[in-house]
Every structure is written in C-alpha cells, then in structure tokens.
Predict the structure.
Amino acid sequence: MDTAAASTSPTASTTPATGPAALKVAVILGSNRDGRFGPVVADWFLARAASHPDVETELIDVAEAGLPTAITFSPGPEEAARLGTVSARLAAADAFVVLTPEYNHSYPAPLKNLIDWHNPEWQAKPVAFVSYGGISGGLRAVEHLRQVFAELHAVTVRDTVSFHNAGALFDDEGHHLDPGPADAAAKTLLDQLVWWGTALRDARNLRPYGG
C-alpha cells in the first residue's frame, strides 16, 4: 500500500496505510472417487490462488474428511470428532471455492453430504466454483450447486472456471497445456470472490447475519 503523504504540519501522520486482512478461503475438493482427477485441478487452482495477494487458502478434501453418511443429531464420539474438525475449518473461512466434477449431470454425493452437515458455516459468505468434466466441463453440477447454496443463505460468485474434457488439458505432471485463458479465468474468479468476501465479512462484523 502507498505510504500516507507527508505534510508540513507537525501533527500530520506518516503511518503507512494498511488494507483489509487477507480473505480466508476454504477450497473444497468435492470428489472421493477412485482414480479421481480432482487433485490435479486442486493443485492447479491452489497455485493460482497462491499468487493472489488478498487470499489465504486451505484445502478441505471430502476424501480425507471421512464424514458419516447418515446425518444425525447425536453422532458417535469418533464421528463427532471428525465432524468438529471440518466444521471449525468451514466456520473460520470467509469464503469458499468448491471444486466439483460432474457425475450424471450433477455433483458428487460426498460433496452434498459435507454441505448438508453444516448450516451457519455457509451463511452470508460467498461461494465460487471450479468445475471439470467432459464436454460440459462440470457446469451442470455448478448450476445445481447454486440452488443448494442459495437455500443456505450463501452468495454464489457469477464467474466460474471450468475445464471441458479436463483430462486432455493437463500433462502428466499436472501442468496446463494452454494456461493463458485458464489463468485469466482464475484471476477473475478470485477478484470477484475477494470483493464479495470482503464486503460480506465487513457486513457480518457490523451486524451478525439473521438468517
């Protein structure tokens, strides 16, 4: 940030201006399918996010979360411990990026399970999407997810990053073969997420959300 301009007045401040704290973004990897392509997409996106000055990311992988599939108000001790770990990480986030493939024109069951175990953790926060798949690039899964997050009082970001025929777009080491357009799309998504995330964080700090 620019340093405050000096003044001839002896009382003028020369303290450097400070901006808002970096946005805490939980990146949710939504597939646990055997042989999944999701980690390639996640690594690519996290590398793009690492170069953005206004975000801090944390990966939440549904395959590692191990949440119970039967939703109950009284989970057992082990299930409660696993759930508590994920819940705390979601609650601490200012914003979310959901990475999803498309299974049968929609999103994976373990992603919906993680979403449904939580409620206030999503409220009044923005959600952006990175999708991948065949010819549709996972966009049909994204459109279904927008309806789900609207019900949870979250705000979905308009622009997405989508990979059509994703397996052919990356080399064996996970590098995108034509990075320019995808990098530009990621920057647009992150810029929008930062705007919404900062605005909603300020609003929640001023007045708790009453959803």
Observations:
- The two ends are 36 Å apart (CA to CA).
